[in-house]
Amino acid sequence: MDFKISPVMNAEEILDKAFGRASKKTKEAKDRVDRKKKTASVKLNTVAHIIEDTIGRYEDEFPTLDILPEFYYEIIDIIIGIDDLKRSLGAINWAKRRAKRTLMEAAREVVSKEEEDEIEKVMNQAYARTDSFLKQVNENLEFLKDARKKLNSLPDIRPEHPTVAVAGYPNVGKSELVSQISSGKPKIDVYPFTTQEVGIGHFFLGYRKCQLLDTPGMLDRPKEERNEIEMQAVKALESLADLIIFLFDPTETCGYPMEKQEELCREIKDELSEIKFIEVENKLDLDRTDSDRFKISALEGENLDELTEMIKSALSEKYPMDNIKEEDLKYIKDPEKAPEEPFTDFEDLDY
Ligand SMILES: Nc1nc2c(ncn2[C@@H]2O[C@H](COP(=O)(O)OP(=O)(O)OP(=O)(O)O)[C@@H](O)[C@H]2O)c(=O)[nH]1
Ligand SMILES: [Mg+2]
Prior knowledge:
By secondary structure, the protein is of the alpha/beta class. It has two domains: 142 residues, Four Helix Bundle (Hemerythrin (Met), subunit A), CATH 1.20.120; 157 residues, P-loop containing nucleotide triphosphate hydrolases (Rossmann fold). The chain has eleven helices and seven strands. Strands 2-3-4-1-5-6-7 form a seven-stranded mixed beta sheet, with helices on both faces. A hairpin with a 6-residue loop joins strand 2 and strand 3. Helix 2 packs antiparallel against helix 4. It is elongated, with a radius of gyration of 28 Å. The N and C termini lie close together (12 Å). Magnesium ion binds next to helix 7. Magnesium ion (MG) binds next to helix 7.
């Protein structure tokens, strides 16, 4: 998901924009009082519209939390806080509605006045109240300003794509494997909740685009060593991943004995018991040990085609791979353009 939220302004900036724009408005009329009335009315309407448009845009552009894919819901909870986000969106909605009502009432009221100073007074009072409504939610606007930055910088992970996560202790070769089986270079990003770089690669199974995630800081150590944020990150990953490749390094050059690696594998399997699992041993080029597990060398590209076949077959139940026609590909990238009559091939794509 690619969040594209416009820059958020704080109360002062919104007020400057609205009052500044309004100050340029004048209306002509035959007599002074009439001119004053019409001018005051157009100014009040201008302020109301600018505030409504500006705050309305934030409300539209921030993700609708109730229909957010679970993965993003968890991630947003980690980096921003769902409750705080809801509270802030509620608060700016309140300020928008109050300001609009006040300004529109004043715009009607000025028309009934016959004295210039009374018109001025009604207008100034409405401006002052508007100023106060916006300033009361300044903290919320500042919060959204910061939230927008965090959302816009999230790595673009698509919950609708089949997703494979690579797990295993540090140095077993996770990043090497992700870069070897990705078409193109994996995008290296830092999640806002890990200090480590996370690679996101893509590969195609038939015409279906799949994503491959490296998981340092998440599935690379026992549960008891994870902090609270990492725990939640694993929960987010659980809602995203369709398959986990657990990578072993039987040469133990990674620095972790096989016994420890087996333990971690069991633990992650238990924890993410709903997700399919493939156990793979890496560094076949150096490996002299015997085992029943499938072996690869990520570094030398050995057995990677076979591994890709294994991935394909593990994912094929949930995502039929071969029956997507090339001409339908564009709708995968741009589902909104798909014809109304759904393609049978698309029945399993849950957009
Ligand atoms: N000989 C050999 N070395 C490998 C193989 N795969 C990875 N390596 C090496 O092992 C080291 C660690 O590989 P990475 O891919 O960085 O390991 P990682 O699991 O991503 O490690 P972290 O990011 O720290 O969790 C690097 O020096 C790689 O070149 C392999 O198949 N054979
Ligand atoms: Mg790595």
